[in-house]
Amino acid sequence: MILRNGVLIILLAATFHVINGQNPVVTVEDATVKLGEDAVITCSYTLDPTRTFQAVQWYNSNSAGDELGESLVNTADSNTNDRYTADTSQTGVTTLTIANSVLSDDGYYLCTIIDSSLKNGDQHGNLAVQYLENPVLESNTLSVKINGTATFTCTQLIGKPTTINVRWTKNDVEIDVSDTDKYLSSDATLIINKVDEMDAGSYQCVAENAAYNGNEGKPSNSLELSVGSDDSNNDDNNKKEVNGAAIGGGVAGCVVVVGLCGGIGVYYKKKKKTQN
Q1: What is the distance between the alpha carbons of residues 204 and 217, in angstroms, rounded to a whole number?
Q2: pLDDT digits (tens, 9 = 90+) for 29-57
Q3: What is the pLDDT of residues 64-79, one digit of tens each?
Q4: Which among 35, 50, 145, 239 could bridge 131 via Cys, Cβ 3.0 to 4.6 Å?
């Protein structure tokens, strides 16, 4: 109270409570998943000490973190989706699980945390769906003569991660391509030099990337390589001597007779005298 000029002035004190504090601070970890497996994206958050967790919402987003469409999960309501599940059982952490991932799940996801003062904070992260397709083996040289060259090409190398390596098998056994004189190329194209009979068999290429390798590598179709004899060594093209006569050699006056039992006889046909 203040007495001023004979007037008693009573001051009323009012207390104003200003709602202040920090919005939730949110981080989202990038995640990877193999095609067909369940994906898990982790969202961590920190709240103002005077507030508590209220709800989480998950959205598809673009690379800038803008929401795309309706929420996938919103724990503030009772709507559910069989493929998307949010776990909020751990303080400061929530996760989004996507069941049976497909290629279209690849992309960005936005996590929005809402606190007890209905303040929110959000952040987005990327989900990479990893996959690898079975390659296709092609060849135009499936029948090769000894000392010839056989070529196989491993095509349609498609996957994520996009760096794909190729290994080669023959009759389901991996080929040691370290002999560069024998195997002129051994990446996506296998060139077999100086083919011999041991090279005949069933060939495959196996594609691998960082997600699918070893026993999880993707095999191609099989192609069968056959190896024939070299014509230069074919006995049919060589001269033979039978009883002193050349067979197939074109000797004048010589007639070759092949018997019914497989015997070979030779007789000479006399030349006719030329009359003057």
Answers
A1: 12
A2: 999 999 999 999 999 999 999 999 999 99
A3: 999 999 999 999 887 6
A4: 35
- Helix, strand, or coil (residue 175): coil
pLDDT digits (tens, 9 = 90+) for 146-180: 999 999 999 999 999 999 999 999 999 999 999 98
The residues that bridge with 67 in the sheet, in sequence order, are 61
Separation of alpha carbons 191 and 86, rounded Å: 53
Residue in the structure block whose two tokens are 């009759």? 171
- pTM of structure: 0.72
**E strand or H helix at 136, and its extent?**
strand 136-138
Q: SS3 sequence, 14-82?
A: CCCCCCCCCCCEEEECCEEEECCCCEEEEEEEECCCCCCEEEEEEEEECCCCCEEEEEEEECCCCCCCC
How far does the chain reach from its first CA to its final CA, in angstroms?
Answer: 170
